[in-house]
Amino acid sequence: MFKVEGITQIFGGLTALEDVSFSVAPRSITGIIGPNGAGKTTLFNIVTGLYTQTKGQVYLGGKNISFFEPEILARLGLVRTFQNVELFGQMSVLENVMVGLHTKSKSGIFSCAFKLPGQIKEEKIVRIKAQQWLEFTGLADSADVAACNLPFGKGRLLEISRAMAVEPQIILMDEPAAGLNSRETAGLAELIRKIQALGTTIILVEHDMELVMDVCESIVVLNLGKKLAHGTPREIQENKAVIAAYLGED
Amino acid sequence: MLCKIMMKEKRQILIFALFALIILLVPLFLKGNYFLNVLVFIGINTLLAVALNLLLGYAGQISLGHAAFFGLGAYVSGILTTRFPVDPWLSLLIAAACAATLAFVIGFPILKLKGHYLAMATLGFGIIMYIFFNETVDWTGGPSGLSGIPNLRLGPVIFDNDLNNYYLVWIITLGVMLLSINLSQSRIGRALRAINDSEVAARVMGVNARILKVQIFTVSAFVSAIAGSLYAHTMTFISPTSFGFNFSVELLTMIIIGGLGSIYGSFLGAAILTMLPEFLRVFRDFDIVIYGLMLILITMFMPSGLIGGLEALFKIIAGKIKWSAARNV
Ligand SMILES: Nc1ncnc2c1ncn2[C@@H]1O[C@H](COP(=O)(O)OP(=O)(O)OP(=O)(O)O)[C@@H](O)[C@H]1O
Ligand SMILES: [Mg+2]
Description:
Helix content of chain A: 40-55%
Shape of chain B: globular
Mean pLDDT of chain B: 92
Number of helices of chain A: 10
Radius of gyration of chain B: 20 Å
Bound molecules: adenosine-5'-triphosphate, magnesium ion
CATH architecture of chain A: 3-Layer(aba) Sandwich
Number of domains of chain B: 1
Order of helices and strands of chain B: HHHHHHEEEHHHHEHHHH
Number of strands of chain B: 4
Number of strands of chain A: 10
Low-confidence stretches of chain A: none
Number of domains of chain A: 1
Structural class of chain A: alpha/beta
Largest sheet of chain A: 6 strands, mixed
Radius of gyration of chain A: 19 Å
Shape of chain A: globular
Low-confidence stretches of chain B: none
CATH topology of chain B: ABC transporter involved in vitamin B12 uptake, BtuC
Structural class of chain B: mainly alpha
Number of helices of chain B: 14
CATH architecture of chain B: Orthogonal Bundle
CATH class of chain A: Alpha Beta
Oligomer: heterodimer
Distance between the termini of chain B: 28 Å
Strand order of the largest sheet of chain A: 6-7-8-3-9-10
């Protein structure tokens, strides 16, 4: 189980998040929606240890992970993708996923430089596993392409492949459908369900309402840093405050 | 897929073997002793360029003070062997260990900094060390330098002539080159390149960027100090001017001209920057100006350095050959 409790984030004079609390059931798909600037990405940055919140706690499986570093969180099985795709551009698609497998291997500088037998074995396993993740997301054909030369849609898929290679308990996706065409978005919905079927909990920040209503079991609505509502897609669609917030925005 | 990767690995081994073979055979064709002397310096500079490339080319962390580690290696080795009855080989190891320890200690605070701030901090470190070399006259001999440093020896072989020094320096340099190539193809090499491309994403994937940066900084200092020690024992005389800011910039120029992140590029850059002053007199008076010009031109027109340019050229030629071969069939 994943839970945030009373998260508040103040940047200078700006309150980006104010007392946000909600919990997420294991193996569920939860959507976080809200107008631009609502604080969705800020929440992800806090949860993944990139920002230090002004106040509030984060729990993963009963453990308080409030002020953990991102690299520790990855080992605990919490990963994310980025709204502004953050790929390792100079590396190949396969190598990107191999970095995702970093926590699954342990050779140090010395054994890597001297190519000790254990390292060679480990490298083979990592390579095969990375290849399998590319097959899982449908990127296997692009394995040798430099990540910076990847078309945008595939870049988003690579972010997901790389994060899944960590074998997370929970994956946070920040607008994975942004910039995708409708065919790619349909493929993404399918992929999200496949990830859930592996037993992974998913939190999805997304502006594409069709996708959110389609895949999410529960939805949290943020507006101006505050939690506006939390419920099933149907409840959210009928919620007056939510409708007002969205209409008011336009 | 796997088969393709194995072929790539085989090709890499072949390229390295060929490179090593050429390097080891070169002295047989060189009767003129003078040029062999230049080649010894190219070897030492290649070693330094590879060390800096591990830090800047792989991990993307700049150092404007790397000459300081080179100098530290030279002075520790020089002082231990001239003022104490320490064996030169042992002094080489102690010198490298000293530089590595220093890098490890200053690495934690310094490598938290990014971009310009890191450049400034390493620059400051280089200047402080340079002042030390100059001012601790009782130990280093100050501006007039430290002389009478003994040569390294191995059984009956004394490394006191260009031919022996050539093999001494180049065998160590080739070894470090091979280890660096291995590293770049490994879990650690990938993690370093990931930090270079996006430190945030690397950390989210579980890469401990802070520790890894300090580790590679330490290794880089260790190798630089070995180069310094080799320099001291082959030259038998050292003075602070070799280890100042200008030389830090020269090292940076080498790897940027040769190609960031490329081990053979490090060699290419080191070779060019070592040879130019030997052949062009003007270079000696205006060196820092010419380095500046080269840096500007390369970063503008050949961002992946000469080695990147050569690779592109090679691909075009290979493409043409394939194309005409296909036409002939
Ligand atoms: N590092 C920061 N420093 C100062 N202000 C910030 C910082 N990060 C975010 N903000 C501010 O916090 C608010 C919330 O931003 P956030 O990026 O979380 O919104 P979002 O919900 O992800 O929006 P979008 O849908 O456009 O991605 C914005 O007003 C933003 O300008
Ligand atoms: Mg956002």
